[in-house]
Amino acid sequence: MKTIRGTLIHDHDVTFYKYGTGHQECLAYVLRYLKDSMDNEKDRTWNRQMHSLIQEMIHYRNGLSESEEPDPQTVSEFEERYKTILSIAGDEYDYEPPGKYYRDGYNLYKRMKKYKKDHLLFLHNKNVPATNNEAERLLRKYKRKQAQAVSFRSPSSIDHLCKCMSMLVLMRRKEQTNLFREIAEIFA
Fold it and tell me: Which InterPro entries match (predicted)?
């Protein structure tokens, strides 16, 4: 088994918790689940409050400049509000337990309570994004190639493709780069 180091950003597949040194739950998924809870549990208030708070936290974090670190006081206030909203959720579910046909909102509440650190890691570490959207966008290209005409004969050929694609992404991020010239230099 390979050892994976670093922070994994994922959509709460518990098997991922066996790997990596840190975890950030993809908040795009959490926002979707909260929206679903708002549609299916109209009598609850915690889901609207949490949805609004998560959007505010992401907006705050995205508004920081590259050299700017998150303000510890602001992060602490976000964490307090997060705990308060979870307390409201607990009270609401104690007063009126979840129905037997829709338990997703309740399950989300329990998960957000248990994995609080993994939902808020992006506030503490500027290198950790709030979502895994970029990774999914980049992976889409590979999946399309695989579905079209690419046939991989071994894991090493998949590895070569992924390395080549990641090099291209990194080259494109450089300002004023001639991609053709950069690739030609690699093969020269």
Answer: Transposase-related, Transposase_IS66_central
